[in-house]
Design a protein that fits this description.
Number of strands: 20
CATH class of the largest domain: Alpha Beta
Strand order of the largest sheet: 14-15-16-18-19-20
Domain UmuC: 15-151
Family: Belongs to the DNA polymerase type-Y family.
Number of helices: 14
Helix content: 25-40%
Distance between the termini: 71 Å
Radius of gyration: 32 Å
Largest sheet: 6 strands, antiparallel, barrel
Structural class: alpha+beta
Protein name: DNA polymerase Y family protein
Keywords: DNA damage
Organism: Pedobacter frigoris
Shape: flat
């Protein structure tokens, strides 16, 4: 089998990564900069900065002089390699042989893989589309050699897929830089008038060796396929996956349950030894008719407890339709986490809140019945506006950065956006006599004094809010506010929450 390689080039690797972390930079020209030999130089620039004339390798002072409103970010040492390793591990789904090509690329040995995606064109398109959808600018090329794939990905202008044996012809009209040569060699080639590979490829090898060295010939041979190019492949993290082939097709609920228990026992034994537990597990059932049925469970706390995990799967066994029968079961711990020490748990007091395992078990049951997206946990955060003073917790264990406010009453149900209401009041600074919400008139019987919340000083100028807790004739309590002063034409009344 002929070798086939894909080169992926992430032209804006660092800047794309930072833009994903800080979306506000999407419309801002910015660069990374670092001190190199007592000079501060640009180490990476986004496309907007490049459009204004700021490029990698340029002195930062020159870049600032050329590019207007340029934002500068300190360079993070080693970040490129970390990003490429993460992207490379993601690409292992397409090929088990992936190598990092510093500073901004990946090399994949895809020999024997492309047919799984309907051919090389569909294979490359699928890979590039997925990476672009993640927010990365990426170019890719496919050829018989690493050197040819690299050259086409970085400098090719026509087709990204080079037919088997076609690398020599594809390289001829490219500049010498396509051979990954040293800057000193490239400068020497340009001075001699060699602006394309075609201009020197037929020159006697002895003459090329004398002028440019043995490494020059090695790069040519690697690109053309005369010399192998060794790759340092990424070693993927061990996957927690168990397979259970069936001698006879499984058609009953009992048989499916036994298969799930068997897989869980094997998987949880491995996880327990590694101090890990399941957060998300995926079961795939391969039927005789070629269909694959998939169900998924999630746990709010990493667990390797077989009985507990089986209870979660049991809620979804009815979704598995075996029809002619299932011939293969595969169970994967899609997401794992460190488990709590059982020894430490013994010393925790009863009723320990979020640390109570019975609470996490209840949440797991509810989440797998009605969907994890229906259950939320909120944490307080330091913000002036009430609708911004809380955030979604990423997990059951995430600690709050600050404490909930207790000095003033807060509604049990806070609307994400205040709703405009019609109000009538006796005096401008008094609470209303009544208000109309969704066409219903509510007469106010009781009201607390106003609580003023000012707009954050660092934001653009705006109006303050005067909040009131009011109670209507039926005993229902509401949180309403007036924005700004009564005499201000922009002033208005809003409903923001309900008390239980």
């Amino acid at each position: 089998m002929n070798k086939r390689f894909i080169c992926l080039w992430f032209r804006y690797l660092l800047t794309d990564w930072l833009t994903l972390k800080r979306p506000e930079l999407k419309e801002v020209p910015f660069v990374f900069a670092a001190s190199v030999h007592n000079r501060v130089v640009v180490t990476a620039a986004n496309s907007l900065a490049e459009a204004q004339g700021a490029f990698k390798g340029m002195a930062l002072a020159d870049a600032k002089a050329i590019a207007k409103s340029l934002e500068v970010v300190p360079h993070i040492e080693g970040q490129e390699e970390k990003l490429l390793i993460a992207l490379g591990e993601w690409c292992i789904r397409y090929s088990p042989q992936v190598a990092v090509d510093l500073p901004d690329g990946l090399i994949l040995d895809i020999s024997g893989c492309a047919h799984l995606w309907g051919g090389e064109r569909g294979y490359l398109k699928e890979m590039l589309t997925r990476l672009i959808s993640k927010g990365y600018h990426v170019r890719g090329a496919l050829a018989d050699t690493v050197g040819a794939a690299w050259a086409i990905a970085h400098l090719g202008k026509v087709k990204p897929i080079i037919e088997p044996g076609g690398q020599a012809e594809a390289l001829l009209d490219l500049p010498p830089a396509a051979l990954r040569l040293e800057p000193l060699v490239l400068d020497r080639l340009h001075k001699l008038g060699f602006y394309t590979i075609r201009s020197f490829i037929s020159t006697q090898r002895s003459a090329l060796r004398r002028r440019f060295g043995q490494d020059f010939l090695l790069r040519i041979d690697q690109a053309l396929g005369y010399e192998d190019e060794p790759l340092t492949l990424l070693q993927p993290a061990e996957s927690y996956l168990e397979r259970l082939p069936c001698l006879e097709p499984i058609r009953t609920r009992t048989g499916i349950g036994i298969a799930i228990k068997t897989l869980l026992e094997c998987l949880c034994e491995r996880l327990y030894k590694d101090g890990k537990g399941i957060l998300v597990a995926i079961l795939k059932c391969y039927r005789l008719d070629g269909e694959i049925i998939q169900i998924q469970i999630g746990s709010s706390r990493a667990s390797s407890h077989v009985a507990r995990l089986y209870q979660l799967f049991e809620l979804k066994i009815e979704l598995i339709r075996p029809k002619l029968g299932i011939e293969l079961f595969m169970l994967e711990a899609h997401k794992v986490g460190d488990t709590d020490s059982e020894q430490e748990y013994l010393w925790q007091p009863e009723g320990c809140g979020l640390a109570d395992k019975s609470l996490s078990a209840l949440l797991d049951t509810l989440a797998n019945k009605i969907g994890a997206d229906k259950i939320h946990r909120y944490l307080p955060q330091e913000r002036h506006w009430p609708e911004k003073s809380l955030k979604l917790a990423s997990s059951l264990k995430e600690p709050p950065a600050t404490s909930w406010r207790e000095d003033r009453p807060r509604p049990s149900l806070l609307l994400p956006k205040p709703v405009s209401i019609h109000v009538s009041s006796i005096l401008p600074d008094n609470p209303p006599m009544f208000f109309i919400y969704k066409g219903v008139r509510h007469v106010v019987k009781k009201a607390d004094d106003a609580e003023r919340i000012e707009r954050p000083w660092w934001e653009d100028k705006g109006q303050h809010r005067d909040y009131y807790v009011v109670e209507d004739e039926e005993g229902r309590r509401y949180w309403i506010f007036r924005s700004g002063h009564y005499h201000d034409e922009r002033s208005g009344w809003y409903l923001h929450g309900f008390f239980s």
